[in-house]
Design brief:
The chain has a six-stranded parallel beta sheet with strand order 10-7-11-12-14-13, with helices on both faces. A five-stranded parallel beta sheet has the order 1-2-3-5-4, sandwiched between helices. The protein is about 45% helix and about 15% strand. The structure holds thiamine diphosphate and magnesium ion. Magnesium ion binds near residues 168, 199, 201, 202 and 333. Magnesium ion binds next to loops.
């Protein structure tokens, strides 16, 4: 065992007794709120409601120690998803959660199963739910806290907190944890605690025995301080008695599954098992023979993760460490509940009879289940006096834990390259525009100062290089660019300094999205607004998709630029072809997705992105770009239409029988087909779609408004209004055709949607456009087919 020397005072007995009462109270409240959601609230649909009484019981002591003694208001915490009810109970005791919401656990509008920033409100620092992500995001949030402090973006006087994850042990099976560990090590992230509820159980089973030795070593290799808290003080005292070493060795060697089974079976089983092996040891007999079955069971399960005083002392002692610290706290899943230790207890719920017995043990009278001091040896005044001594009980802000930061002004137009008559790609225009912003001149200065860029090892190939040359790479320590110092030619000048504004990541896309998520919450976490821009190859959005959805679920605000995309990546090999990403853009909530074809559209959208990601009712933004250089038109655009998702490149005549719609870099094929089409069918229209996502979202919103009796017409309805009813509509994009197929439902148009629905050929664009039916000929065929009906 690895105990730090106690630098902080140990918790005194009186305080410990009072906190012990809080610990029991949290066990009661978390169990009861789950019980009442399942057994008392009427069930209208026959579905299992669920909840995790065993997962909560496992972590109650850890969370009592943290929230009621160790944490400070400015600390930012990710709570393991299945401890949601304990988290709500803590807030209830602190007067930050209502009884209504507690009774509404898992009901519409009630407390969420897993703590949720957007639904539970201002007390939640990080949402959790998808295991592993909540743990890992604390690494990137800590990095971003370093960033905003080193850049002087935080208002003076803002308290700095620690970044803490309370993790389930099975969360460490998720690969994203190790990706984050590596990245955290590279960036020298220190202000970080991971507290692992090591109950050696996941959902299905008991975890293998030797696993944690490995994992502990891994943390150490990554520069972490590891504090393993295995045995509680009563067991430690027993080990110190004659023969106690034998008992310790026996428990140390006891396989996790046997330990769990004996925990479930109780004292008599423990006695039989210990005596079978150690019955001849007089010392061991002296330790256990005097104990009742109940007392023996309590001793054998006296693990450190349930020894409140021991936990508090260790957390207090670690407070000064200048390393990230991992606490491995041994626990029993379901501790104190009838299914403690049973391998199937993950979703286990106490029966009504078990709850009645539990209620009696907890000293809770029927009808008083929610009373604040019920079952406590404290009256209201004594509880309030106790809370007054608890650092975390001081509210961070009157409205909750979320901070705010002023809006960064975005100029009415961003500098964009002259485009008319040139051949340009959206990716290169994006790179040029960002580099121009990077000059930080005039009214661009605030915008430039708040942008932070990041990329998982594709900085140069996504055209961020010129921006990085101007603004530098971020590192807590200044590191020279060796190539530059040696005067070796390179287009990239990558000195690293604390002032740098680009965070270079290794190739791990989940880390990209966790970083964007953390940076995109900086206004709320640090009171310093960042405008994060992350670039990635479009197909590899899939690689980080859960973390992307997780960032959006938390309402993080960032700009994702995915490029190259679609078939323009095919020469790299067919596996790099991205097909489904436009559909992800349509279907991901709190993410406004666009695919401009031309530079002028991109200029509008990039400006919009920096504005939209700061608006209270805004969201994260995604731009899907391309390296295909296409001819740029000379025209003036209706910015609102571009932002709403589409504009007529050639408006249709009223009553037109056909229109052609394109999205992204297939514009030249669509334009060529249109030139032939309009010769045959005068009055046909050519529609430039900049965002099927925005068009679709607007269409659904208008339908909802009309259902609510309000007048509404969506942008896509207005766009398609001039067409004859039942007109033909041929659509084309370098992405899955279902992205557009729904357009037929807007006004009953007969849609022929074009786009690759197959995957994986390499080749050049002429071959691939032909193979996937995106070339001019295929578009004209589709027009003929559509006109014929
Ligand atoms: C990404 C993901 N996969 C699967 C699940 C389903 N799931 C919920 S909890 C759990 C096991 C959790 O075990 P552990 O982290 O040890 O928590 P505890 O034992 O404290 O309940 C699983 C697989 C999930 N929530 N997220
Ligand atoms: Mg577990």
């Amino acid at each position: 065992m690895d105990l730090p020397a106690l630098a902080a005072p140990a918790v005194d007995a009186e305080r410990l007794a009072a906190l012990g009462a809080i610990e029991r109270k949290l066990l009661w409240l978390s169990s009861w709120m789950i019980h009442q959601a399942n057994h008392i609230r009427p069930n209208r649909d026959g579905l299992k409601v669920g909840g995790h009484q065993a997962s909560c019981a496992s972590v109650v002591s850890i969370m009592t120690a943290l929230y009621f003694d160790v944490l400070h208001p400015a600390d930012r915490v990710a709570v393991k998803p299945h401890a949601g009810p304990v988290f709500h109970a803590i807030n209830y005791l602190l007067g930050r959660q209502t009884r209504d919401k507690m009774e509404g656990l898992r009901a519409f509008g009630g407390a969420q199963s897993y703590p949720s920033r957007s639904k539970d409100g201002g007390e939640v620092d990080f949402s959790t739910g998808s295991v592993g992500l909540g743990v890992a995001i604390t690494t990137f949030a800590s990095l971003m806290a370093d960033y905003v402090h080193l850049h002087g973006l935080v208002p003076e006087g803002t308290q700095r907190g620690r970044y803490v994850a309370i993790a389930g042990d099975a969360e460490l099976d998720e690969g994203n944890i190790y990706e984050a560990l590596l990245e955290g090590w590279k960036h020298d992230v220190r202000n970080l605690w991971w507290v692992i509820d090591y109950n050696r159980q996941s959902l299905d089973s008991v975890v293998p025995d030797r696993l944690f030795g490995r994992i502990e070593g891994l943390f150490r290799d990554m520069g972490w301080n590891v504090v393993t808290m295995k045995y509680g003080r009563r067991l430690q005292a027993a080990f110190d008695r004659p023969g106690g070493e034998g008992l310790r060795a026996w428990i140390d060697d006891c396989p996790n599954s046997l330990y769990s089974a004996l925990t479930f079976q109780g004292g008599a089983a423990w006695r039989a098992a210990v005596l079978a092996d150690l019955g001849r040891s007089r010392g061991v007999r002296a330790i256990i023979d005097t104990l009742s079955d109940e007392a023996l069971a309590a001793l054998m399960t006296n693990l450190a993760g349930h020894d409140l005083g021991y936990l508090i002392d260790n957390f207090r002692a670690a407070t000064a460490s200048d390393q990230p610290t991992c606490f491995i706290a041994y626990t029993v899943k379901g501790m104190g509940l009838p299914f403690a230790g049973h391998k199937d207890n993950h979703a286990g719920l106490m029966t009504k009879e078990q709850m009645e017995a539990f209620r009696a043990v907890m000293g809770i009278r029927p009808g008083h289940e929610w009373d604040r001091t019920e079952g406590l040896p404290l009256d209201e005044a004594a509880l309030d006096r106790l809370l007054a001594t608890i650092p975390f009980a001081t509210p961070l802000t009157p409205g909750g834990r979320a901070l705010t930061a002023p809006i960064v002004p975005v100029p009415a137009a961003l500098p964009a390259p002259r485009s008319a008559g040139r051949k340009l790609s959206t990716q290169s225009v994006f790179g040029d525009m960002l580099a121009e912003i990077g000059r930080g001149q005039g009214e661009l200065a605030p915008l430039a100062a708040h942008i932070v860029t990041t990329s998982p090892d594709v900085t140069v190939s996504t055209s961020l290089g010129p921006w990085v040359n101007r603004r530098g790479v971020f590192d807590r320590h200044t590191r020279n660019d060796v190539f530059r110092d040696a005067k070796l030619a390179s287009a990239q000048r990558w000195g690293m300094t604390p002032e740098g504004q680009h965070v270079e990541l290794g190739i791990a896309e989940q880390n990209l999205f966790l970083l964007l998520g953390a940076a995109g919450l900086s206004h709320a976490l640090n009171g310093a607004r960042l405008l994060p821009v992350g670039t990635v190859y479009d197909p590899f959005v899939n690689r980080g998709l859960d973390a992307l959805i997780y960032a959006c679920y938390q309402d993080a605000r960032f700009l994702l630029v995915s490029t190259p995309s679609g078939l323009t990546l095919a020469p790299e090999g067919g596996q790099h072809q991205s097909v489904n990403t436009p559909l992800i853009g349509i279907s991901t909530d709190r993410l406004a997705s666009f695919e401009p074809a031309h530079a002028d559209e991109l200029a509008i959208l990039l400006r919009h992105a920096f504005d939209w990601m700061q608006r209270p009712d805004g969201s994260a933004v995604w731009l899907r770009l391309s390296t295909r250089q296409i001819a740029q038109p000379a025209r003036s655009l209706d910015a609102e239409a571009v932002i709403a998702g589409g504009h007529w490149a050639v408006p249709p005549a009223p009553g037109a029988r056909i229109a052609l719609a394109y999205q992204g870099p297939v514009a030249p094929e669509a334009e060529a087909a249109f030139a032939e089409l309009v010769a045959e069918v005068p009055g046909a229209g050519l529609l430039a779609i900049t965002s099927p996502d925005r068009l679709h979202a607007g269409w659904l919103a208008a339908a909802r408004a009309r259902r609510d009796g309000r007048d509404a017409q969506s942008h896509v309805e207005r766009l398609l209004a001039p067409l004859a009813s039942g007109a033909a509509l041929v659509t084309v994009l370098d992405g899955h055709p279902a992205s557009h197929a729904w357009l037929g439902a807007v006004r009953g148009s007969r849609v022929v949607p074009l786009g690759p629905d197959r995957f994986g050929q390499s080749g050049d664009l002429p071959d691939l456009y032909r193979a996937y039916g995106l070339d001019t000929e295929a578009i004209l065929d589709a027009c003929a087919q559509a006109l014929l009906g």
